[in-house]
Each structure stands twice: as C-alpha cells, then as structure tokens.
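Narrative summary of target 7.
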Amino acid sequence: MESLQRTAIISLVVATCVTTAVSDTRKDYRFPVGPKANVSVETQYGSITVKPGSSNQVVVVAFLKSDKVEVDSSQKGNRIAIESHMLQGADQQSGQVDYEVTVPPDAAVNLRSSTGPLSAEGLHGDLTFEGTTAPVDVRHVSGGHVHVKTMSGTVNLSDIRGGHVEITSISGEVHLTSVTGPLVQVNSGSGKISYDGDFGSGGDYHFTTHTGDIEALVPAATSADFSAHSVLGKVHNDLPLEPREHGRLSWAAGSSFVGTVGKAASKVVLRSLSGKIRLKLR
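Modeled conformation, tokenized:
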C-alpha cells in the first residue's frame, strides 16, 4: 500500500514538473540599434518591464505560458516591434506572455497590455503606456515625455523630471511623487489624483476629475500660482496664499481658492465637478 502511495506521489510530482516546463517557455530576442531607437511591445495578457541597458542593443525576454500563444517580432531600421499573437483556443491564462525588456536609455518606448502591469525606470526617451486594467509604474525618468492612457489601472509616477507628463484615466487612481516638468496634466473620471512634490519651477500643472478627489502635499518652499475649484465638492487649503491682483476665479470659501505662494514660478490648476480638493502643507 505504501509503495503504491509513493508511486502515485512521484507520478504527480513528475507530471507537475512536466506541466510547468511546458507552460513556461522562454524566448530571447536581440536587436542591434542606433541612437534614439523606437521600441514597441504589445501583449493582450501579461506584464511588461523595461529597464536601461546597452546603448546599441535591445534585448527582449519573453515568457510564454502555453503553446497557444506566439511572439511576433520585427525590425525595420531603428524601429523594433514585439507583439503577442494568440492562437485559436487561447484564453487569458493560456494566452499570457510576460516581457522583460532592456533598451538604450534614450529609446522611445511604447507599451500596451490589457492586464499588465506595465513598468519602466531609468530612461530619458519618450514613454507611452496604454492599458485597460493594467497598473502603470514609472520611476527615475528625465527629459522624455510620459504619456499614460488607462481605464481602471492605478498609475504611479515617481521621480519624473524635465518632460511633458500627460495621464488619462477613467477610474484608476493616479499617484505622482516628485514629478515636475514644463507640463504635467492629469485627467481622471472617478479616480483620485494625489501629488507629493514641490511643483517644480516654471511648469504648468493641470489636474482635473469628474467625481474623484484631488490632494496635493507640498513643502513650505513651494513657488506656485494656485487656482482650485470644485462645483459640488469641498475645497480646503493649508497654505498661506497671497491674493492675486487680477484673477478670473473669485475666492469662494469651501468651494474654491486662488492665490500665490513664493514667487509663483509654476501655475497649478485643480478642478473637480463633485470631488474634494485639498492643498496640504508638508
């Protein structure tokens, strides 16, 4: 009896190992490129992670979860395209492909996934992220533009400097930490927008929601011209703002505030239909 049990256990272990080996297939791709390469990676289901690597090579490692999905790759000059190709009978689980990508730091990167997550760090080229429920995480980026479009995925941006940042979300929360640049624009339907930083110097910052809340946490050394208004929601300010000499938006206690702090180097506009807006002093 014990012998039969041992045999059954061994058979189960072997079967599990075989299944794992079959369901997780690794494929490697290498592409020589010149300066400012354009790299596009798209998967219906799965994660995409991008990090800086060699200045003249793009390396893509794909992890396929089954034989019901393939990876199509192409190179035309300095443009690289990688795409998951689902075969007949594939579903969300069997059609999943996860990607680990290293690119030259100055590469322009375009990432698309329904489920994600999507992440990139340490780059200074233009970055574009598109997803449905895919969370987006971007860190330590400078100089390039960052564009994010998502339906419900959470967006986290940290240490982003010197580029245009444009984020559009239907219901996902957007969290910005130490994000500065000439233009930082966030539009959200019902998701909360939170900002933790000093609003840089000389930039335009526009945060707009329909029903979501907006919260900004800033240091006393912030230099900005603030304008905040919620049609139906409450508005609260902790900063000692100086009144403007001329302004189109009048001060309305509880629903709006305007004013400047410091030399008003940056312009900050906060708007919501029914969400709460709060400007907090760190």
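The mean pLDDT is 90.
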